[in-house]
Amino acid sequence: MFGKRTRLVVVAMLAVVMLSLSIMPALGQDQILVGLSFSDFETPRWSQENEIMTAALEELGYAVVSQQASHDPVTQNNQIANMVTQGAKAIIIVAQDAAAAATAVEDAAKEGVVVIAYDRLIASPDIAAYITFGLEEVGNGQADGVLKALGFDPMDPGPTDMWTTDNPVQLVKLEGDPGDNNAQFFEAGQDEVLAPFIEAGLVEVVARQNIANWDETNAVVAMENILTAQDNKVDAVIAANDNLGLGALQALNAQMMSVPVSGQDATIAGCNSVAKGEMTVTILKDYRVMAPQAVALVDSFLKGEVDPDLESYSLALLTGDEALEGEVMAKYLPVTQVTIDNLYEAVVVSGFQSYDDVYQDIPDDEKPPRPPEATAEPS
């Protein structure tokens, strides 16, 4: 006779099995299953990249199972394990936590599963490849855009009519989720550009804070607290992505303050903010290029081939942790700095975001002409 606890455990196990079956696609004869594991779908780009990769994989004849973990690394590891159990031969992973995902990758690799770390490094030599954008270039572009908006020449760290050693820029830095390996490289890229100005006494970093889950609401709260602590003496904000930049802008607008603010990802909301003259700079990472390349990597590995553009890097170099051993194959793609000056060409004409989305709520007489069609190829 089963006790109450036993019955509850059995019910829970059956629920897990039914959930796994519910996401399991119907496999055709000789079809290979590929998994897509995302940290979340709250970040706008991930759902879009999921659609691109799913379509590309299905076009190549693969069956696809896709899940998102709502920012929970334990949930993500369980989802990855379920994909392996279901027979996935390859999994593309956007990791919520680089270190936590390493355990799931190790277990998958033992079963012969090809794992691609997508846009976020997983700290394990068991990944087959890591594909991302130039991480420090992102940070370079953010700092460069903010410095130019302040009136500096980023190549010449000298004083301006406004900014001197007696009146340095009071700079706030809102960095990404601490569990995301990318965050530290965006920060390093920013600091590389800022260093000469800080050393010259022209820029002072008055606050530096990581924002959990890259969450806009968390960024609003953090920025409100910083403004209170600084008595609103803030002259610029380098925010690591559009969510954080938009959060900073909410807090600044509440205080009727207008200062240069950076972002990243060229999201609809971010680009609309740039068009309105609010966000100063965002960084375009064209996932229309990266998502198909990740699919191509999966296809190559499953066919026993290796992409010639992959290069070997040590985990110690990629993570900044000298204690980590092993090498991984990686590919870095270029990024584009986007400001009001090139927003139209880089984002709208290229078709990355639509004209109507980017110029929403902007008076017609202030909009550029509507392009006949987005014909430019993504670069």
Describe this structure in words.
With 379 residues, the chain is of the alpha/beta class. It folds into two domains: 30-127 and 286-333, Rossmann fold; 135-285, Rossmann fold, CATH 3.40.50.2300. 43% of the residues lie in helices and 16% in strands. The protein contains 13 helices and twelve strands. The chain has helices spanning 4-23, 44-59, 73-85, 98-110, 135-149, 181-199, 216-229, 242-254, 268-275, 287-302, 315-319, 343-349, 355-358, and strands at residues 33-38, 63-68, 90-93, 114-118, 129-133, 169-175, 203-210, 236-239, 282-284, 311-314, 327-333, 336-338. The strands form three sheets. The protein has a seven-stranded mixed beta sheet, with helices on both faces. Helix 6 (181-199) links the parallel strand 6 and strand 7. Helix 2 crosses helix 10. The chain starts with a helix and ends in a 21-residue tail after the last helix. Mean pLDDT is 91; it is low at 4-22.
Please estimate the helix content. 40-55%
CATH architecture of the largest domain: 3-Layer(aba) Sandwich
CATH topology term of the largest domain: Rossmann fold
Name the CATH superfamily classification of the largest domain.
Response regulator
Number of helices: 13
> What is the average of the pLDDT values?
91
Please state the CA-atom Rg, rounded to the nearest Å: 23 Å
Shape: globular
- The CATH class assignment of the largest domain is Alpha Beta
The biggest beta sheet is recorded as: 7 strands, mixed
Tell me the β content: 15-25%
The total tally of domains equals 2
Major beta sheet, strand line-up:
2-1-3-4-5-11-10
Q: From N to C, what is the helix and strand string?
A: HEHEHEHEEHEHEHEHHEHEHEEHH
Structural class: alpha/beta
Total strands: the figure is 12
Q: Are there runs of 5+ residues with pLDDT below 50, and where?
A: 4-22
Distance between the termini: 65 Å
